[in-house]
Predict the 3D structure of the following.
Amino acid sequence: MPTSKKFVHVVNFYLKPGLSASDVKKFEECVSSLGKIESLIVFNVGKPADTDRTVIDKSYSYCLLTVFNDLAGHDVYQEHPVHLEFIKNCNMLWDKVVVFDSETIDL
């Protein structure tokens, strides 16, 4: 039976404190440009939601959610010129990046 497993890549960005509004806008525009990468099947950028439970970590600034058909699609994304340009142009805006990679399970 063929697998329907997807590869999920979640990145939490912790922007530097005290960034100017133009720096934040630059980050938002650049991170949004990643949605153009062809190997993506799901793309979302968001900020912490207005929820309040003890298990929720809202310490990050932005969360990037991407889904690919497989690891190969993710690998294309990682080396894509748009992704590399994003890192080059924005890495000075964040203090920390935390990545969660997972593979969906067939239930």
